[in-house]
């Protein structure tokens, strides 16, 4: 990967999608984004938004989440995958935020990783979007397209995260995730890539043109 090719990729992404941060999950408070991100694991953002619109009306505070029954929470999020574990994690996470962090979502990575249901991807979503801390989020789109672009050979999201930290300018760390999500949903679609209309095809060694 040459610096010029990477810069061309970033310039074309900026031209196509702009440089403003985007968030596809709907939220009004930091804990709502945290919970929505927990729910989004192996689920579409669109489905999560449908569920949280009612969920955040019913449970409009951390205290209400903390006191909810697991059975009722499971019913409330039943249409989302892995709802058994996610219901348990939402309640436990709310309780820990109240008991250990005075009801505030922490900004440091180590503290975020102590919360039930929170891994590096979720923690970096919060750090990048709530606290404006340069963070790289490696989801399935980022992993797949970063590999197609020849920027990594790894299958390990944590390794990919650190590899991208080495080559991407910090002002594009969080953008890399949202830009590649958009690209992956509209053009570089898994198993049916539209390479013929992709604005990155000249920079992509995997392009089928």
Features:
Endonuclease III, domain 1; metal-binding; Endonuclease Iii, domain 2; 209 residues; mainly alpha
Protein described:
- By secondary structure, the chain is mainly α.
- The chain has two domains: 3-21 and 136-203, Helix-hairpin-Helix base-excision DNA repair enzymes (C-terminal) (Endonuclease Iii, domain 2, Orthogonal Bundle); 30-129, Endonuclease III, domain 1.
- Helix content is 56%, strand content 0%.
- It has eleven helices and no strands.
- It has helices at residues 3-17, 30-39, 45-58, 62-66, 70-76, 83-100, 109-112, 120-129, 140-148, 157-167, 173-186.
- Helix 5 (70-76) crosses helix 6 (83-100).
- The longest helix has 18 residues, at 83-100.
- The protein is elongated.
- The two termini are 20 Å apart.
- The model has no long low-confidence stretch (mean pLDDT 94).
The total number of structural domains is 2
Figure out the total of helices.
11
Structural class: mainly alpha
Share in helix = 55-70%
The named CATH superfamily of the largest domain: Hypothetical protein, domain 2
H/E element string? HHHHHHHHHHH
Give the overall shape: elongated
Query: How large, in whole angstroms, is the Cα Rg?
Result: 18 Å
- Top-tier CATH class of the largest domain: Mainly Alpha
Q: What is the CATH topology classification name of the largest domain? A: Endonuclease III, domain 1
């Amino acid at each position: 990967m040459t610096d010029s090719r990477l810069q061309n990729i970033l310039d074309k992404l900026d031209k196509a999608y702009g440089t403003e941060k985007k968030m596809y999950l709907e939220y009004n408070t930091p804990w709502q984004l945290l919970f929505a991100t927990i729910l989004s694991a192996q689920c579409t953002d669109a489905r999560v938004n449908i569920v949280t619109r009612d969920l955040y009306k019913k449970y409009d505070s951390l205290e209400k989440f903390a006191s909810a029954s697991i059975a009722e929470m499971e019913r409330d999020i039943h249409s989302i995958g892995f709802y058994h574990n996610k219901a348990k994690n939402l309640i436990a996470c709310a309780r820990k935020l109240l008991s250990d962090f005075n009801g505030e979502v922490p900004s440091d990575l180590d503290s975020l990783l102590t919360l039930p249901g929170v891994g590096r991807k979720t923690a970096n979503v919060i750090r990048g979007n709530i606290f404006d801390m340069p963070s790289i989020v490696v989801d399935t789109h980022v992993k797949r397209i970063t590999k197609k672009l020849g920027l990594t050979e790894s299958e390990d999201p944590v390794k990919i995260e650190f590899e991208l930290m080495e080559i991407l300018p910090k002002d594009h760390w969080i953008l890399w995730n949202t830009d590649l999500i958009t690209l992956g949903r509209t053009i570089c679609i898994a198993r049916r890539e539209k390479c013929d209309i992709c604005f990155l095809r000249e920079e992509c060694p995997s392009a089928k043109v």
